[in-house]
Structure formats: structure tokens, C-alpha cells
Amino acid sequence: MRGEILITDIIKKNKIEEVGAKNTEASDKMIGKWLKCDSCKEILYKADVKENYSICMNCGRHFRLSARRRILQTIDDGTFTELNEIMPDVNPLEFEGYLEKVNLLREKIKINEAVKTGIGEINGIKVAIAAMDGNFLMGSMGSVVGEKITLLIEEAIKEKLPLIIFSVSGGARMQEGIISLMQMAKTSAAIAKHSEAGLLYISVLTDPTTGGVTASFASLGDIILAEPGCTVGFAGKRVIEQTIKQTLPDDFQKAEFLLEHGFIDKIVDRREMKSTLTNILRLHGYGGEHK
Amino acid sequence: MKSAWDKVCIARNMERARATDYIENIFDGFIELHGDRNFGDDKSIVAGIALLDGDPVTVIAQQKGKNTSENIERNFGMTNPEGYRKALRLMKQAEKFNRPIITFIDTPGAYPGIGAEERGQGEAIARNIFEMSKLKVPIISIVIGEGSSGGALALGIGDEIIMLENAVYSILSPEGFATILYKDASRNVEAAEKMKMTAEDLKRLGVIDKIIKEPEGGVTEESREVFINVKKVLIEDITTLKKNDTEKLLSKRYDKFRKIGG
After folding, report:
1. How many domains does chain A have?
2. B123 in contact with A at a CB cutoff of 8 Å?
3. How many angstroms away from the CA of A138 is the closest CA of chain B?
4. Model ipTM?
5. What's the pTM value of the predicted model, to 2 decimals?
6. What is the number of other CB atoms lying within 10 angstroms of the CB of residue A246?
7. Are both A134 and A206 inside the same structural domain?
8. Segment holding B237, helix H or strand E
């Protein structure tokens, strides 16, 4: 795991704890006023980082964002309507302790599931948007994530809206087994329908996007953007290293690697994400007079 | 009564019938077609055109070897992006010439390698799922051995999904599942049970439609009865699926996956 390190931990326990994936509303309160960038090791004042879109002021590293903050950074104030905020949990494998784990986590971090979906405006342009949340079971896709994303896409088709999905995911959710795998089919088939309707889908890859999410909707954007330095891949780095018995270079599966190999359209700094999305939407006739 | 792990072992058995055994015994005049027209020819996928009971069909099959040297040639049935892209090219060709598509699934998973990632393994799988969901010809998928992860799903978007009695289909291997969830790869037997990866479990979960019986000990290249049975089921299913107009075929296919985990 990668991310910010607590200075309070360094001082108090002389121990390094990585909390990069936890910089959410809930953990904001817990982690004090300072952080250490895991990339350049600079000690940063947390309020400044927050002000700077959660990007390291020193080296430009993009720290992970919760779905809530992603929506706040992307959607015009007061225009977001969340869809299907609460969905019934399922446990198709009757996997022991799974629902208890989900409920405990939900209470602790005050996040319902690994994706937030809804309708909102980007500089006045109405869009259907999904933001995944890496804080919730690594942003893994189980039935609820698959269903929420599919319902959003179907709403977008019905309302003829462009679709934007910010992905961050460890892949399919293991605890739901084959049913998680089938969410790849369900969401991708919905994307195909949205595409057939001639509507625009922009996929934004953030750190990390892997496994079953990479192998489904995240790779199916008409336009695919990525945040600088994010990890994107299908197989995990460790699995590949075990298979080929070699150590992989640091830049393997990074956004820049994907750009080089032709699998993303553009790397976009988070501070320019909203204006870039606006530009692409306008180039497709959204928000103009003719649409 | 076989345990889930027993079935995993049967599904992985070196003696087990391979995709080419099905192709030889079920179809006539099979002509193998090669390459993705972009990068190369992935030998973990055997694909081409053949006659099924006199009618042309497109066959796409994952092929494991019957011995070590064959397995090395076939990459142990682990498909690379160019394999999925070859499959997609031939599925699109099937659509153009209005041929039904039959896919045989047998893979421990999509290949996890440097080249596979460089050539977009995730994109290749996603693209197949996306395109298969809207192909205007009937698609039948049969899991004949191991159906593991997105590597299997990339050929698995069928109107009808069939499994051999001892085949398994899952999100990943029981060893991988045990490593991730129990932090202990040696709990693979227990994981296999918990994962609900047998044909019976998957039929109960509504993920697959039909199960085809196997002889005791599992299907081998000698199991003529199994091949006759698979052929019969394929002919029946294609006849039934052909009765749908395109719109109906596609809306049924959409709903089939739409309802899972909904």
C-alpha cells in the first residue's frame, strides 16, 4: 500500500504507518495535521494538501481520494443527486463473516459501498457520474457495485446523458466469488448499450485500477484518461513476478506505461481534470446550443 | 459423492478431454484459422469454422496440452491478449456470415505476464465481453475443464452456458482464493468448497443453464458418449436460439447477465 504517512505516528511510536488509502472524511479527523508524502518524503501540512486537491505540493504525487471528495472536486456545488445510495447487501457464497465485515467497515468509515453514483453538473453540463472508493474493501466490485454502476448506466441511457466513471479498484470482490465475476459482464453489457445509443463515456483511471475492473468498464471508455503515476493493470505485480520469476521495474503498469503502450488517451493532472472533462464534453456537443 | 476439490482435480487432470477432442468428435470439416491480424497467433486458442450437423458454425476454443511439451506450446491454456483478439476477430466474422458461435472454455486464467500487460490484457478481456454482449448471432459457451477468472469470462458471454459435470468455473483458482482470503494457500480444499465453483452450485446460483454428465472419473478423449451428448445439446440449443429474432436474442442475452447479483 502506498500513500501518506502519519507524522504523529513517526513521533509517538517511531513507527511508520501508511495511510494513503484512508484519507477520507472519517480518517481526516484521526490523522492529525501533518502528513508525509510517501513519494518525496516531504512533510506536508494537511490543510494545504487538501486545498491542493490532495496533491503533494512538492512532487505532484496524487494521493488517493474518497468518492465523496472526488464528486466534490468534479461536480458543480449543489447539483449532485445521488442514486441508489443504499442497496441491500448480498452474500451469494454465504461467506462467513462477510456481511459483518461490511457492516463494521460501514460504521467505522461512514461509507456505504465501494462506489457512489448519481447525476450532477460539470460546468453546467449534466452528466451521469460514478466515483469508486478505494477505502471500502479496496474498491472491489461485488454485486452492489455492479448493480449501482449498471443502474447508473441505464439511467444515463434513458436520460441520454454522457457517462463519467472514476475507477479505483483492487478488482472483483473475492467474497462474492463468481457473482462478482459476472458483474464484469453485467456492467460491460450496459456500457455496450450506452455506446450503441451514441452516448459519450469517459473513463478516468485512478490509483490503483486493477483486475476485474480493468478487464471491464474501466477499459471501455470512448476516451480514457488517467491520473499521473496511477497503477493500472490486469494481473497484480506480485502474481506476474511469481509467474516470470523476475522483479518488475517501478514504472511497470503506471499511467505513463499505459500511455506509451497505447491504452489510454491522456494523462490529466487532477487540478485540470474538471476543465479537461468540460472540454471533452463540449467537443461532443454537450452543454452547447445544439444539445 | 465428489467434493468440490475432487472436481478441481478432475478438471485439471492431464488425461481429461481437450477442446480439440470435442472439435474432432462433434464437427465436420473443421478448418482452423489463425492470428489476430495485429500481433500474432496465440496457440492457447484454437479457432475456426466447421459444420455442425451440416450447418456452418464458428468454433473458438481454449486448448490445454496433453503433455508437458504440448502444454508449453499452448501456454497451459493461459490466453494472451492476441488470443482474445483472434477470438473476437473470428466472432465478428461469424456475425458477418450469420454463423452461430460455440466457445469451449478451459483455462487456469488469462496469462499474467509482462507482454500481456504491455499489450493490454485488461482491455482485450473487456472488449470481448463488450462485443459479445451485442453480437447478432447465437452464442453457446461450454466450460469443459477449468474456467478461471476474466480469462474464462472473455469467451463466456453466451446465450446458453453449459458445463461438463466435473468442470469448475470461478473468480480465480482455489489456491488464489485461499491466499487472498485466508492468507494461507494450503487451505485450497476448503476454499474450493466455499467458492461454489462446481457445475451444480453454479446452476443453483443461476450462472449456468445446463450440465452434461460425465463417466466416472471424468471425460477423456475416449468418452464418445459425452461427445455425442454435447453435439445433441448444441444442435438443440442452436435450433431453439435461432427461433428468436435478433432483437429478442440480444435482449434475452442482456437480461441473462443483468439479473445476476441484482
Report:
1. 2
2. yes
3. 13
4. 0.98
5. 0.94
6. 10
7. yes
8. helix B224-242
